[in-house]
From TrEMBL:
Coiled coil: none annotated. The gene is mcsB. Residues 24-255 form the Phosphagen kinase C-terminal domain. InterPro entries: Arg_Kinase, ATP-guanido_PTrfase, ATP-guanido_PTrfase_AS, ATP-guanido_PTrfase_cat, Gln_synth/guanido_kin_cat_dom. It comes from Sporosarcina globispora (Bacillus globisporus). GO terms for biological process: phosphocreatine biosynthetic process. Keywords: Allosteric enzyme, ATP-binding, Kinase, Nucleotide-binding, Transferase. It comes from the Bacteria. ATP binds at residues 27-31, 92, 126, 177-181, 208-213. Appears to be allosterically activated by the binding of pArg-containing polypeptides to the pArg-binding pocket localized in the C-terminal domain of McsB. It holds the Pfam family ATP-gua_Ptrans. GO terms for cellular component: extracellular space. It catalyses: L-arginyl-[protein] + ATP = N(omega)-phospho-L-arginyl-[protein] + ADP + H(+). This is Protein-arginine kinase. GO terms for molecular function: ATP binding; creatine kinase activity; protein arginine kinase activity.
Length: 359
C-alpha cells in the first residue's frame, strides 16, 4: 500500500484539518462521563449488564440517528486484534483503559472520527469530541448535543446536590474533562515551562504528555486539562481552561519572537539540522523523531521552511507510533525494525511534499 493511500485511510480530521490558533493548539477535546441508572457501574457490573449497556446504546443508534455525527460504526473491543486497538488508542479515539482492560467494551465512531463514544470503559458511557485547533466551546456544544440525544433513551445516574455520578470520584459533578493539545517548543527552548507548569497546577489544571496521565511530553507536545469537575458548571470549567490556554498561546508566541531576535541563526540551524536528519535517516527512535518533528514544525511556523504542510507534526507524531508502524508494515515488528520503518515512513512523507511542490 502506498503511503498516500495509507494516510487517507488512517488520518483523522483533527490531524489534517486546520483550526483556530493551529500553529500552537493541535487539538481540543471534550469528554463527558455518564452512567445508566439501572445498571451497576463497570467496576462492579456483571457480564450480562455489560452486554445490556452495549445493546441499549446500539439500539439508540439504530432507531434514532444523530445527524451531525454522520455514519456511526460500532466497534466491539473483543472482536479487535491488539494491534487494531493500539492504533485506535494512538489516534486518541479510545483510552488505554478501554484498549487493555475491557472485554465487554465497545466504541461508537463517527465517520470523520471527531466523535467517539466509549462504552463500558471506567463508566458506562464516555462521550468524546475531538476538534482541530482551539475549539473547546465548539467541542463542548457538540458533546452536550450528543449527551442530550443519548439521554432521551437513558436515565443517567444523577444526584441533585452532587451532579452526575461516576466510577471515579474525581469525575463526579459535571463528568467533564476538557483538554487541549499544545505544541510549545518556544517555552521549552527559553526554559520557561518548569516555571509555568506549577502555576497552572495551582489553578486546578494539569499539564501532561501527549497521551495523558503518565505519558511523556514527546516533541514538546503537552496536554492541558481540568482537574476539578465538582462545584463548577461545564461552561465555567471550559472558560477557565480557555483563559489559561490563551495565555499560553500568547507566551509561546512571545517566546518564539524572542528566539527569532536573539538566537535566529542558531534556531534556523537547529531547524534545518533536524530536517536533514528526518530526510536522510535510515534508523530513528521515537524520541529523536519526535524532537526533530517538533523542530521542523517550529521552522514551518516561523517560515524558515516553506512549502511543507503545517500538519506534518500532527500526522507523523501519530503515524510513527508503534501501532501505526506495524499496521503500515502489515505485521508485527521488533523495536529495531520499527526504528527502520519509522525512518522510511518519514522520508516517504517528506518526499510526498517535494513531489507535490514539484507538480
Amino acid at each position: 500500500m502506498s503511503l498516500e493511500r495509507f494516510m487517507n485511510q488512517a488520518i483523522s480530521s483533527w490531524m489534517s484539518a486546520e483550526g483556530p490558533d493551529s500553529d500552537i493548539v493541535l487539538s481540543s477535546r471534550i469528554r463527558l462521563a455518564r452512567n445508566i441508572k439501572q445498571y451497576k457501574f463497570p467496576t462492579l457490573f456483571s457480564n450480562e449488564e455489560a452486554e445490556a449497556v452495549i445493546e441499549k446504546i446500539k439500539a439508540r443508534v439504530e432507531h434514532s440517528s444523530f445527524s451531525k455525527m454522520g455514519q456511526m460504526e460500532l466497534l466491539l473491543m473483543d472482536n479487535l486484534q491488539p494491534l487494531q486497538k493500539r492504533v485506535l488508542m494512538e489516534k486518541h479515539l479510545i483510552s488505554p483503559h478501554l484498549a487493555e482492560n475491557s472485554t465487554y467494551g465497545a466504541c461508537l465512531l463517527s465517520e470523520n472520527e471527531e466523535v467517539s463514544i466509549m462504552i463500558n470503559e471506567e463508566d458506562h458511557i464516555r462521550i468524546q469530541c475531538l476538534f482541530p485547533g482551539f475549539q473547546l466551546s465548539e467541542a463542548l456544544s457538540m458533546a452536550n448535543e450528543i449527551d442530550d440525544w443519548l439521554e432521551e433513551d437513558a436515565d443517567f445516574a444523577f444526584d441533585e446536590n452532587i451532579g452526575f455520578l461516576t466510577s471515579c470520584p474525581t469525575n463526579v459533578g459535571t463528568g467533564l474533562r476538557a483538554s487541549v493539545m499544545m505544541h510549545l517548543p518556544g517555552l521549552i527552548l527559553t526554559q520557561q515551562m518548569n516555571r509555568i507548569i506549577p502555576a497552572i497546577n495551582q489553578l486546578g489544571l494539569v499539564v501532561r504528555g501527549i497521551y495523558g496521565e503518565g505519558s511523556e511530553a514527546l516533541g514538546n507536545i503537552f496536554q492541558v486539562s481540568n482537574q476539578i469537575t465538582l462545584g463548577k458548571s461545564e461552561e465555567d470549567i471550559v472558560e477557565d481552561l480557555k483563559s489559561v490556554v490563551s495565555q499560553l498561546i500568547s507566551q509561546e508566541r512571545s517566546a518564539r519572537e524572542a528566539l527569532a531576535k536573539t538566537s535566529n541563526i542558531q534556531l534556523e540551524d537547529r531547524v534545518f539540522r533536524s530536517y536533514g536528519i528526518l530526510s536522510n535517516s535510515r534508523i530513528i527512535e521515537s524520541k529523536e523523531a519526535a524532537q526533530c518533528l517538533s523542530d521542523v514544525r517550529l521552522g514551518i511556523d516561523m517560515q524558515y521552511i516553506k512549502n511543507i504542510s503545517k500538519n506534518i507534526l500532527n500526522e507523523l507524531m501519530i503515524l510513527t507510533q508503534p501501532g501505526f508502524l506495524q499496521q503500515y508494515a502489515g505485521g508485527p515488528l521488533r523495536p529495531h525494525e520499527r526504528d527502520i520503518r519509522r525512518a522510511s515512513l518519514i522520508r516517504e512523507r517528506l518526499k510526498m511534499e517535494d513531489q507535490e511542490l514539484g507538480g
